[in-house]
Amino acid sequence: QEAFEETGANVSLEVVMDGVEAVQYLRKEGKYTEKSLPDLILLDLNLPKWEGRDVLRNIKTDEHLRHIPIVILTTSNAAQDIFDAYHLYANCFINKPVDFESFFNVIEQIQAFWLQTATLPSNVS
């Protein structure tokens, strides 16, 4: 969140604390009933309660959510994690740097590509 603020990007960023909360947000359950669907999801594989793979699988098998691009942003660089993410239809896999300056650069690149260069699907329901 801090890195996005540092880029000066004009984005609305919503952060959830675990995989269960992520799915509740996307399905507009509980305290999230008034929330809009995101244009892009940054998903860590290492989430409490439901790991990122479970969240990814849940999103990509839901006909109302599968159109949302998902960028896996995680500290893992394991070949199996990369394979699994793409096998579950992640749109991108990025190894999350541990130092802030490198992480900031990655966030700038994500913001430049996904929010300025790419054309994302709009929510037309």
Secondary structure topology:
Blueprint lengths: L1 H6 L11 H8 L14 E3 L8 H9 L9 E5 L4 H9 L4 E4 L4 H18 L8
Parallel strand pairs: 1-2, 2-3
Q: What would your notes on this structure say?
A:
The chain is globular, with a radius of gyration of 14 Å. The chain is mainly α. It has a 3-stranded parallel beta sheet, with helices on one face. It has one domain: Response regulator (Rossmann fold, 3-Layer(aba) Sandwich). It has helices at 2-7, 19-26, 52-60, 79-87, 100-117; strands at residues 41-43, 70-74, 92-95. Helix 2 runs parallel beside helix 3.
Give the structure's gist in a few sentences:
The chain has 125 residues and is mainly α. Helix content is 40%, strand content 10%. The chain has a 3-stranded parallel beta sheet, covered by helices on one side.
